[in-house]
Amino acid sequence: MPLMPKRVKFRKYQRGRRKGISSGGNYVAFGEYGLKALGCGWMSAQQIEACRVLVARKFKRGGRLWIRVFPDKSITKKPQETRMGKGKGDIDRWVAVIRRGRVLFELGGIPETMAKAVFKEIAYKLPFKTKFVKRRG
User: Fold this and answer.
1) Residues 6+ apart with CB under 8 A from 112
2) CB 107 within 8 A of CB 119
3) Which of 8, 30, 84, 115 sits at a 20 to 30 Å CA gap from 65?
4) Is residue 69 within a helix (H) or strand (E), and if so which, with residue range?
């Protein structure tokens, strides 16, 4: 079952704005290393799950992953070859709205070289540019 909220105030949302700078979640809080977004966009529940599976396969038992984003925005889609009108379409998927500067994933308990390699592979699966960041202090 994909990542999605248990319940929401409204089933269907408007598209909103994808540009801007992230006001929260823009520093490494839990692990030692993080993957920070350098662009804005939507990150789907499938993309988050693909990244989680990739990390699980790489680590086997060692290390810890923190996922700092959650897909809480519903995206609707109308069926193909449907005429205009007749209301908003059905929910197609769930996405997380990502703004520039947001820390997406964090890793801990592994060497820096391994963390960099894992984050490089994760970056291939994402729809925007990212960068490797370390915890301050």
Assistant:
1) 32, 33, 134
2) yes
3) 8
4) none
pTM: 0.91
Q: Which two tokens stand for residue 13?
A: 């949302």
82 falls within a domain: no
Contact 115, 62 (CB under 8 A): no
Q: Which structural domain, as residue segments, surrounds residue 107?
A: 1-77+87-137
- pLDDT (tens digit per residue) in 23-80: 989 999 999 999 999 999 999 999 999 999 999 998 887 889 999 999 999 999 999 9
The Cα 52–Cα 19 span in angstroms is 26
Among candidates 15, 53, 39, which has minimal Cα distance to 100?
A: 39
Q: Please compute Rg for the chain using Cα positions.
A: 17
Q: Is residue 114 part of a domain?
A: yes
3-class SS at 6? coil
Does 1 have pLDDT greater than 70? no
| 80-124 pLDDT per residue, tens | 999 999 999 999 999 999 999 999 999 999 999 999 999 999 999
Cβ-Cβ contacts under 8 Å for 137 (sequence gap 6 or more) = none
